Amino acid sequence: MAYWLMKSEPGSFSWDDLVADGRTHWDGVRNYQASNNMKAMKLGDLAFFYHSVKEKCVVGIVEVVKEYYPDHTDKSGRFGMVDVKPVKPFTAPVTLAQIKETPELSELALVRQSRLSVTPIGAAEWRRICAMGQTEA
């Protein structure tokens, strides 16, 4: 199993929206590196759901339930999407500031490549962020 972080602007699509829907396709990604990260996702992989822009925090865990396929919103046909479903919310959201203050998380793409919307997370970093959020993965 691999671990990921997926960013969403809560004003456009929030954790609560995902919970209400029960499942969604993760469309609209137009960065090649983020798209390649989604191509690498497999069924059952887990990802942090991260509220970007003003909130800047991990708020929950999602599971990949459909692997990469064409994104219906991309008229060029170059980009794809995956489907995810909510697994569980974080007991305590983990802020970007907390992540930056944690030395063992300093190499995360979230810190080094802050504009990238879909990034890999190592197993040790996954466990650390879950512990910070008082949530078992």
Polypeptide structure, described:
- The protein has one domain: ph1033 like fold, CATH 3.10.590.10.
- The protein is an alpha+beta fold and 137 residues long.
- The protein is 25% helix and 36% strand.
Roughly what fraction of the amino acids lie in strands? 35-45%
- Strand order, largest beta sheet: 2-5-4-3-1-6
- Under CATH, the topology can be stated as ph1033 like fold
- Percent range for helical residues? 10-25%
Number of strands: 6
Query: Helix/strand-derived class?
Result: alpha+beta
CATH structural architecture: Roll
Approximate shape: globular
Provide the succession of SSEs.
EHEHEEEHHEH
Domain tally: 1
Spell out the CATH superfamily. ph1033 like domains
CATH class category label? Alpha Beta
Q: What's the rounded overall pLDDT mean?
A: 96
**Radius of gyration, CA atoms, in whole angstroms:** 14 Å
Spatial separation of the terminal alpha carbons: 12 Å
Task: Count up the helices.
Answer: 5
Low-confidence stretches: none
Largest sheet: 6 strands, mixed
